[in-house]
Design brief:
Number of helices: 5
Distance between the termini: 86 Å
Order of helices and strands: EEHEEEHEHEEHEH
Helix content: 25-40%
Strand content: 15-25%
Number of strands: 9
Radius of gyration: 20 Å
Amino acid sequence: MRTSFLKKTSMQEHHLETTVTGRYLVESPDGVGPLPLLAGFHGYGQTAEDELELLRNIPGSGKWIRLSIEALHPFINAKGQPGASWMTRRDRELRIAENVRYVDAVIAKVTAELPVDGRLVMHGYSQGAGMASRAALLGRHAVSAVMLLGGDIPPELGDLARMRAVHIGRGERDRLYSQKRFEADIIRLRQAGLDPAMTLFRGGHGPTGEYFEAAGRFLAEMEFV
């Protein structure tokens, strides 16, 4: 009887950098610039269209170039519709770096092609709030302000003062972005020397008219920055 001996094999994990095509939507006001730029980041499972519609509902945003950036990781969401995600648990640091480079490239392209006046406000909803924060703090484009709705500031981020001005909103019945996390983010911003504009509105995870009115007032203040 012959006995066979199998050599033990080992699995190795590798990463290969490749090119992935991103998608974004731009709306520019009629007339001559230069104009400020309002960049938006959608929530988990949403698309650039969803965030663009949110930006449109902010009073006064029609005076800005509205830019809605879609996440690089597409999938079919629970409703059977196209959606995308900004983050996965696997290779987290790689995904963060890729996302920031992607956003940097989109903003650079838009500012090269359109008459942007140097003012840049980033708006993030839900999971997009984390992406807006990362783009503002890790990206190469200096921001005038950051607007966060229904999502927290990633805990690993530092130097929050680079956000310059912040509007942070939460629905009173929001189960995904808790009051505890909302208050913790406010404390972090204040410790960084910022005085955030806060909106606690009647509603759940999504925006309401009350939120849009508050966001519009904040955005109007940015016209004079």
